[in-house]
Amino acid sequence: MMLDSLPSPAFAFANDTRSEAVFKGHCTPCHGEDGKGKASVGTPDFTSRKIQASLTDAEIIDIITNGKKGTIMPAWKDKLSPQEISAAASYVRSLRDGHRLMAKLGLVVAVLVVVLALVNTTRVDRRNMPVKSTESIEAQTQMPQNVAAIFHRACRDCHTELTRWPWYSDVAPFLWLMAADVYGARDHMNLSTWGRYTPEQRNDRLIAICEMVAGGKMPIWYYKPLHYPDAWLSESDKKAVCDWSKSQVELNAAR
Ligand code: HEC
Ligand code: HEC
């Protein structure tokens, strides 16, 4: 809050709801429900910065107390207590704050909209490369159905060319985050092009798969909340993956 919008001591005791009650009870017929004034009565717009700047706190209290000469603005000193007058004045002032706050909020929203719009004009591809099914890990290794199912539901979005890009992945900054993840993951290990790895590369990855899965490091934690329960591996899921990966390492060693 800026210093100039702090209430002056005269208003400090006025309680917000009571301030509003006094204003709504006595002032809205001429000043409007929202305090924006009525052209037919010739009252000013209290949410206007200019009007607010033209009035000191003391003047507001004085006008409410004694009326405004030459206008139909009545004097309230015989009808309202000093506390009620102070409350009404405080409410008149608060219309400025409300207006400023809304203006600031509006500005923030507008800036966000513009930034997101600009950001979304720079495109990043959401790419899935065409692949030969004969190169996939399913075709290249002896993979039981249950293990294939685990890879399919928990790993394929990042480690294959079969990524299901969700709708929000078309919107920056999600697009960048997801694209970076998926391309990074495929770089480390692409299950769709398993056939292109050398025997050593395959072994490294087979060992890493069990390590990552058993250690709970894969799938990456932040992928899990949006992919419940698919991405949540049970102990028996982890064991199935590790049993399979070990069997494949042994098979390769025996060759
Ligand atoms: C019968 C109609 C009427 C009522 C009721 C009334 N006002 Fe006014 N008020 C006016 C008019 C008319 C003006 C003068 C506008 C102008 O400056 O020409 C005015 C001016 C003011 C001003 C000074 C504005 C300025 O720019 O100089 C304040 C503050 C104010 N009123 C507060 C109140 C409050 C608070 C109440 C309720 C307690 C209230 N008024 C009730 C008609 C009314
Ligand atoms: C949300 C995307 C995402 C999902 C889902 C995911 N991974 Fe990963 N994975 C990554 C990223 C990104 C990396 C690269 C990590 C790094 O940069 O250190 C990675 C790395 C790996 C590695 C390391 C490869 C190497 O270089 O040795 C293995 C193994 C792995 N993931 C296995 C899996 C398995 C198995 C699953 C499914 C159970 C899975 N991942 C699910 C994103 C994912």
Ligands bound, unique: heme C
* Range of strand content: under 5%
Helix content: 40-55%
What ranges have pLDDT less than 50 throughout 5 or more consecutive residues? Answer: 1-14
Q: Tell me, what's the shape?
A: rod-shaped
Number of helices: 11
**Rg value:** 34 Å
Distance from N terminus to C terminus (CA atoms, Å) equals 74 Å
Mean pLDDT, rounded to whole units? 89
Could you please describe the fold and organization of this structure?
This protein has 255 residues and is mainly α. It has helices at residues 16-26, 28-31, 49-54, 57-66, 82-119, 137-140, 145-154, 156-159, 174-188, 199-214, 235-254. It has 2 domains: 3-119, Cytochrome c-like domain (Cytochrome Bc1 Complex, Chain D, domain 2, Orthogonal Bundle); 133-254, no CATH class. 54% of the residues lie in helices and 0% in strands. It is rod-shaped. The N and C termini lie far apart (74 Å). It binds heme C (2 copies). Residues 154-155, 157-159, 181, 184-185, 188-189, 205, 208-209, 212-213, 218-220, 223 line the site of one heme C.
